[in-house]
Design a protein that fits this description.
Blueprint (H helix, E strand, L loop, with lengths): L21 E3 L5 E3 H7 L12 E2 L5 H4 L19
Antiparallel strand pairs: 1-2, 1-3
Pfam families: DUF1272
Protein name: DUF1272 domain-containing protein
């Protein structure tokens, strides 16, 4: 099951579980649309994989299957590209 991480790893923008602004790679590294497209050019800086739209979990499923609260933030992300 996807973790649905709570923020962009590059700029730390909040990305709630219902956000249409979240993109992920196959390892679930999570980025906002701006960072994924403008900064990272569609490639994950951690694994080199493609960044694609993160599926949204239906609200009625979040109670039993909550999103992750663990934030991963790497401010150097933008500088690497």
């Amino acid at each position: 099951m996807l973790e649905l991480r709570p923020g962009c790893e590059c700029c730390d923008k909040d990305l709630p579980p219902d956000s249409a602004d979240a993109l992920i790679c196959s390892f679930e590294c999570t980025f906002c649309t701006h960072c994924a497209t403008d900064v990272l050019k569609g490639k994950c800086p951690n694994c080199g994989g493609d960044l694609v739209s993160r599926p949204r979990r239906p609200a009625n499923k979040l109670a039993n299957n909550p999103a992750s609260t663990k934030r991963i933030f790497n401010p150097a992300c933008a500088e690497q590209h």
